[in-house]
Structure formats: C-alpha cells, structure tokens
C-alpha cells in the first residue's frame, strides 16, 4: 500500500508561555521577539545543513524529574547548554514502540485509521490528524478531541492511552523542571479542552536507509519527548550529536522547541534531524504545545505558528502586524 504523502511535519497549533506574558497585549517588543527567534533558527539551520562533523557522546540519563530539586536544576542547565537531555521515563517505553511498529506496518490498520484529516473547520487549516507517508516513511498523527478521546478513532490495538500517559507524565515533569508553568501546556489527557488538541502523539516508522528522512529543523513545541533510540541527531552549534546511552527500555530524550525559546530567551529551540539507520526504526514523539486559547507575547496561537514558518524576521513581523492591526 502507498499512503498519500500529505504531510512531512504537521502544522500544529500551539500555545503557552510564562504567566507574565499570557494576558499581555501584542507589542512591538513581542513581535520583534518572535522575529528574532525566526532569524536565529533559520541561520542555525543553514549552518547546520553544511556541517559534517559528528560525535556520539555517551550520556548519563537523568533520574526522576520532580523528585529532587538538584536533579531538576541539572536538567534545566543541560537543556539550556545542549538543547536535549536523556531521562528515565516513569514506565518502560519499549512496549509502546513495539505496538506502534505493529500498527504502522499493518496496511489494513492504516487504511482503517484514515488519511490525514484537516482541522480547517476549526480555522486551523495547516493542522491534521491521521495517517500519511509512503513505503519508506509512515506516520500517524494522533490528536485528542474536546472530551480527550483519540483522533483518529481507529488505531487497532495500539495502546494510545498508555503511550500518551507515559510520555505526558515525563513531559510535564520536564516542563516544570525547565521552569515552565505546566498549566499553560496543552495536556493530551485533558477532557475539558473544548477543542481538538494542539499537542500531538506522532507514530513514525522509518525503513532502513542511508538517506536523511528529515534534515535540520526545529519543532514548534515547548518540549518534545520521545523514546530514546538511534537515528536522532542534535546540532550544538559546531557538530551533530548522536547521543548514546546504555541499553534500557525506559529511557526517553527531551528537547526544546521554538515556543520555549519565545517565552524564555535562556533556552534555544534545538535544531535536530532524523538520519537513516541500518535497520528499520520506530519512534513515538509527543509534541507538547500549548492551549489554543493562550497568547504568548499577546499573539494568538495560530498567528504565532504562522509567523514561525516565515523565512526571516521581516516577513514574520509583516505577517503579525497585518494580522494584529
């Protein structure tokens, strides 16, 4: 079966920010701040795309976040310094990855899940849920409706609730450890959202390859949380990091997104890429975004997302001024 390649990186709404910026009206400083983030990301992406240097550091995973202030402080420092951190998940993630692999390799299950469905009826034309991809790369983006039920409805035997709970538990611990108010992040487990979630659980399968399925990019998230596995590399400004850790099925990697950089300039959105591996691999990242009604720097979420897609600060500022006048 060949799935229609509708989408490579979902255009997802997001929201959030520190309490001090949520209610504030849009200002020139806020527009300039978003533009500065766009410029920094684009510049870093251009440099990263031409860098061949790679390293494979052996990293020590962080222990339980939220239990020891010293561990949280070390995690926060690591995230600021390197853009990513390897952590112990509250529950083993290997079963989640195995069940995602079964779903993504099952043509009938993907047909039942349905193709990518647009949220344009909610005024979110760049957002989708459902299955997409091709024979070499297969994805299912899972969202959650206003009552907390998964979209798409048909996900076979995949344990969406268990997967979401395991990754969201770590994700919200990481948000708190990073100093971000977790109440501003769209919780996929919520049953009182009133709209389709902006946070998404992405099930991704990559066939064995020596190609790079996703080149240098950042995520429009506060944080992204994924089971730890080879195939994901992070750029530190000089070289690509392919972190290694002792084999363990309860490790996850957490990295910073562009929303976190917008609301807290001490963090930088992590430029990363997905590289080919000798064997097929599956990943199940949870992309933590904010509540659609929140307004970081006073800018509505959809407008903030659109601005982050622009080529440079000038284009982002022009777009925001036109939308907010």
Automatic annotation (TrEMBL):
<protein>
    <recommendedName>
        <fullName>Fe2OG dioxygenase domain-containing protein</fullName>
    </recommendedName>
</protein>
<feature type="signal peptide">
    <location>
        <begin position="1"/>
        <end position="19"/>
    </location>
</feature>
<keyword id="KW-0732">Signal</keyword>
<dbReference type="InterPro" id="IPR027443">
    <property type="entry name" value="IPNS-like_sf"/>
</dbReference>
